[in-house]
Design a protein that fits this description.
alpha+beta; Ribosomal Protein L22, Chain A; three-stranded antiparallel beta sheet; two-stranded antiparallel ribbon; binds coenzyme A
Amino acid sequence: MIGIDVTSVNRIKKMHDKFGERAYKRFLDEEEIALVKKVETAAGFWAAKEAASKAIGTGIGKECAFHDIKIKKSKKGAPKLKYTKKIRKKYNIKKTFLSITHDEGLAIAVVNNVLKV
Ligand SMILES: CC(C)(COP(=O)(O)OP(=O)(O)OC[C@H]1O[C@@H](n2cnc3c(N)ncnc32)[C@H](O)[C@@H]1OP(=O)(O)O)[C@@H](O)C(=O)NCCC(=O)NCCS
C-alpha cells in the first residue's frame, strides 16, 4: 500500500509565523520538532504524515491522527516512519518505508507499507 502527498513549504511557514511552536505541536511531537532545523523539513514531515494516512486508506482524521504517526531519522539523515501499535495491528503493517524531497517551495513524501501475509 502506498501514499503520496505534496505540501507547500510557505503554508507551513505561515502557520509557524502565526502560531510559533504551537503550529508544529499540532502535527509533531517534541522529538520530531527537535529534528526540524528548517521549515522545509517541517513541510516534509507534514507531507510524510499525510502520505502515511493515505497509505492506509483513511487520510488524516479520527482513525489516523498526526500523532499516531512518528518520524525519526537515521544517522545518515534518512527519514523513518512508524505508526502506533494500534494502527499497525489494525492495518496489518509489517514495515513502513518513507522518502521525502523538497525543492522550489514544495515538499513531497511517499510512503510504502509492507503488509503482513
Ligand atoms: C541526502 C540526499 C539524498 C538529499 O537529496 P537532495 O536532492 O539534496 O535533497 P531532497 O530535497 O531531494 O531531499 C531532502 C530529504 O532527503 C531525506 N534524506 C536525507 N538524507 C537521506 C538519506 N541518507 N537517505 C534517504 N533520504 C535522505 C531527508 O528527508 C531530507 O529532508 P531534510 O533535509 O528536511 O532532512 C543527497 O544530498 C545525497 O545523496 N547526498 C549524498 C550524501 C551526502 O553528500 N551527504 C551529505 C552529508 S555527509
